[in-house]
Structures are given as structure tokens and as C-alpha cells.
TrEMBL record:
Organism: Pararobbsia alpina
Phylogenetic placement of the source organism: Bacteria, Pseudomonadati, Pseudomonadota, Betaproteobacteria, Burkholderiales
A GO molecular-function descriptor: adenine deaminase activity
Region (Disordered): 415-442
EC id: 3.5.4.2
Protein name: Adenine deaminase
Keywords annotated in UniProt: Hydrolase
Pfam families to which the protein is assigned, alphabetical: Amidohydro_1
Gene3D superfamilies per UniProt: Metal-dependent hydrolases, Urease, subunit C, domain 1
Amidohydrolase-related domain mapped to chain residues: 59-411
InterPro entries: Amidohydro-rel (IPR006680), Metal-dep_hydrolase_composite (IPR011059), Metal_Hydrolase (IPR032466), Metallo-dep_Hydrolase (IPR051781), OTAase-like (IPR057744)
The keyword Iron appears for this protein: no
Length: 442
């Protein structure tokens, strides 16, 4: 079986341990062994068949994992335009986004809704079959909303077209969820609350009923499929807990009761705040007519401040918080994903280590593969990136694709390692050399 040995690397294994100088042996699509060394190569046994990649002191770590991805958002400046896009163009846009995630070092992504029922499913299947490059993807269906809820942008005098599925009542919900499950989605997405940018539903409004959410969850559970929700209002966060919705997006207006519930259920709920949407909509969308003044009037500054306070409190209480920024709008285009990692450090006060663990170890958990993804350990899937420099010292390194020296997914290089001579010298020395060469066991 094909073996690749990374030598002379600083291993950031994302178990929570400090980085250490070492070597990592890949066999097939799995990590076979991890060795601590004394900063130089020599720890791992090798035969002639092994491809040796000298990391030159660069950081070897798990590929990044995005918790809120929309492959079918295509950097548009309005939600309306993804409702109008014909399916043929839309498939191409999704293929481009999938490739872009991988180019940015993201080897897994949680689909947070697709603009048409089969887009994510078709792209996931094509990636898994090796037909197109892309990260491992949990495929989602379109956001399911209610008449007048988030995403119902259709003027009432025109035939319905949208990027969402509009249902009213438990029975319509049941039928819609069943139809999406039939197509093979890994997740369903419910829009429980509104969003300031829409005219029909505000962020603090809760528009879906318990009967509707309950029916959706009953159908999803029947097939063992998990659910995620757009939940900004306090009430919508509580609805997520009430109905066992696994992934809570945004969670901006958590009140004391919501915080208590999140803490109580922290072992099976994930919160992905998608702060980059709030941040760029507040401060970086002027070119599209959304000046900071307008965004403030719309309520985005208030929501951003409230969300930051709430998420910090959730973190303090041990709730799992994951990056994933809702990318794919004109003012936060695909390819800028790692900016949400910077938000975790600068806006939420996370340490760089906690931020990276949120994007790797917790990423493996939200992908429902905690024993296979998101860490450098023997037996784990070989999704790894080689990073020029020390991301623990500078979280913005991930934003520069040229600093990603190699990208491997499932044991195969998507980005081949650049020859050492062509690469600038590493900025930092590998840290914490250990006294002996010891295989690290799982
Ligand atoms: Zn989203």
C-alpha cells in the first residue's frame, strides 16, 4: 500500500497537546503512525516504497473543517438571485465552491443548506466517487421555512420560486422532509427564526411552530438523519433543544434560560454562530449599498454585540462552538473561509489553540466521525495540511493559500508538497523537542 512519510514537521495533532517535532506516516488513506523525534528526521522506520516529504519545520495538522457551508451560494449580493439561477449553472457553481474549500485547506464541510433540493447531494456523491475535487460533505437540502418566514422572498402575485422550501403545518412539513430524505440528504435545515436583512421576518421573531418543527424531527429521526436550524431568537434556540435539533446556527439572542438549556445539553448540541456574516454585513458591505450606518439601523451591530456576549458565555459553560461563516455572499465570498477563525480570536477571545481545535477536533465531532476525523492519530483518516509557519502564533496564516504547502485528503495529495528549495524558510522552529523517539499511540 502507498506510504507517505512526513519528516521534519511540527506536529499539531489537535488532541489539545502542544505541537511537537516529529514524523507522521500515512498508509493508504489512514494515518498509520505518529513519531516524536528530536527535531530531525529518523524516528520512523522506512522502506524504499515510502515517499518521504521533508516538511522543513512546517506545521503538519488535520485539515480544517467548516461547520456552516453553502456550496450553492455563489457570491451573490441578494438571496433572490440564487432562487432564480437555472440548475445547470448552479451545479457548476457548486463544483467551483467545492474545489475552493479544498484549496483553502478545508477537507470537510457541513452543508448548512443548498439552494435546490439535490445540489448538495449530487456534489457530495461526485466528490465521494472521485469525479470532482472537494471536501467530505454532509449534504443538506434547502432551508425549510414557513409562509412569510426567512427565505420566503417570493412576491405573492408571482408563481413561487425560491431557494427555500415553504411549508405550513405539520403534515406539509412531514411530506417535505420525507421528500428530501428520499433524495439522500445527510441533514435537514429548518429556519426557525428570521433575519434582519429580509423584509418579512426579523431576527428576534420565531416563525416556525412547535408542531412543524416536531413533525420534521420525527421524520428525520425515523431515518437516523440529523437536523440543523437557523435560530437567532431566544425562543428559537429553546425550540432546538426542545426538539433535539443537533446543530444550532447563529444563536445570537440566547437569554438566561436558553444558556441554561444549552449548557445542560452541551454533549449533544453544536453551536456554529457564523459570526462572519454578522461582522461583514455590519462593516464590509458598503460597496453593495449596505453601509455601516444602514447595517446599524437594520440591527446588525446590535445583534453582533449581543451574539459575541452570548457566545462567550456559552464557551465559558463548555458548549461546543464551531467556526463556519456562512460564506458565499458578495461581501464574504468563497475562499475567505479562514477569516472566521480570526473572528474566534479577535471577537470571541478564543485562544489560537481553542480556535484550531474548534475547526478540527470539534469538526470531527460535528461530522459525526470523532474517531476518524479532525486529529493526527494512528487510525484516523489522512486528511492533513502542511502549513508554512506556526498557526498557534498567527491564526491569519490560514488566509494565505500560498502558506498551505501541501493539502492531503483521504491519503491523496490534492496539493502536492512544494519542493523544499522552492519554499521560504519556516518562520518558527519546531517546538518542544522530546527526549526520545517514541511512537505516539492513539
Ligand atoms: Zn447560512
Amino acid at each position: 500500500m502507498q506510504q507517505t512519510l512526513f519528516t521534519n514537521v511540527s506536529v499539531l495533532d489537535c488532541t489539545g497537546a502542544a505541537a511537537y517535532a516529529g514524523e507522521v506516516l500515512i498508509e493508504g488513506n489512514r494515518i498509520k503512525e505518529v513519531f516524536r523525534s528530536e527535531g530531525k528526521s529518523g524516528g520512523a522506520p522506512r522502506s524504499g516504497e515510502v515517499r518521504v516529504v521533508d516538511g522543513g519545520g512546517a506545521t503538519l495538522m488535520p485539515g480544517l473543517i467548516e461547520a456552516h457551508a453553502h456550496f450553492s451560494w455563489n457570491n451573490q449580493d441578494s438571496l433572490d438571485s440564487i432562487g432564480r439561477m437555472p440548475v445547470e449553472e448552479h451545479v457548476l457553481e457548486c463544483m467551483i465552491a467545492a474545489r475552493t474549500y479544498l484549496e483553502c485547506g478545508y477537507t470537510s464541510a457541513v452543508g448548512a443548506a443548498a439552494a435546490k433540493p439535490r445540489l448538495d447531494v449530487v456534489i457530495r456523491n461526485a466528490i465521494n466517487a472521485g469525479k470532482i475535487p472537494g471536501p467530505r460533505l454532509l449534504a443538506n437540502g434547502p432551508e425549510i421555512t414557513t409562509t412569510g418566514g426567512l427565505g420566503d422572498v417570493n412576491p405573492s402575485h408571482l408563481p413561487a420560486y425560491s431557494f427555500v422550501e415553504i411549508v405550513d403545518g405539520a403534515e406539509e412539513m412531514r411530506k417535505k422532509v420525507r421528500a428530501l430524505l428520499k433524495e439522500g440528504v445527510d441533514l435537514i435545515k429548518l429556519n426557525l427564526s428570521g433575519e434582519e436583512i429580509t423584509i418579512t421576518a426579523r431576527a428576534e421573531d420565531t416563525l416556525m411552530s412547535d408542531a412543524e418543527a416536531g413533525a420534521a424531527m420525527e421524520e428525520a429521526r425515523r431515518r437516523g438523519v440529523r437536523a440543523c436550524a437557523h435560530a437567532r431568537s431566544a425562543e428559537s434556540i429553546k425550540m432546538c433543544i426542545r426538539h433535539g435539533i443537533d446543530i444550532i446556527y447563529h444563536a445570537s439572542f440566547a437569554d438566561e434560560e436558553a444558556l441554561d438549556l444549552l449548557e445542560k445539553h452541551k454533549d449533544h448540541v453544536f453551536v456554529a454562530p457564523a459570526l462572519h456574516w454578522l461582522y461583514t454585513t455590519s462593516y464590509e458591505a458598503s460597496a453593495w449599498g449596505l453601509t455601516p450606518e444602514i447595517a446599524k439601523q437594520m440591527g446588525y451591530h446590535h445583534e453582533l454585540e449581543t451574539a459575541i456576549k452570548g457566545i462567550k458565555e456559552m464557551k465559558r459553560r463548555g458548549v461546543r462552538i464551531l467556526p463556519g461563516g456562512d460564506f458565499g455572499f458578495a461581501w464574504m465570498p468563497h475562499g475567505t473561509y479562514a477569516r472566521d477563525l480570526e473572528n474566534f480570536v479577535k471577537l470571541l477571545g478564543f485562544s489560537t489553540m481553542d480556535t484550531i481545535l474548534s475547526a478540527t477536533k470539534l469538526g470531527g465531532e460535528i461530522m459525526a466521525m470523532p474517531d476518524q476525523l479532525g486529529q493526527i492519530k494512528p487510525g484516523y483518516l489522512a486528511d492533513v495540511i502542511l502549513v508554512d509557519g506556526d498557526p498557534l502564533a498567527d491564526i491569519t496564516i490560514f488566509q494565505d493559500r500560498s502558506r498551505l504547502l501541501a493539502i492531503m485528503k483521504d491519503g491523496a495529495f490534492f496539493k502536492e508538497p512544494s519542493p523544499r528549495s522552492e519554499r521560504p524558510a519556516p518562520l518558527t522552529e519546531p517546538n518542544v523537542p522530546s527526549p526520545q523517539k517514541t511512537p505516539v499511540t492513539a
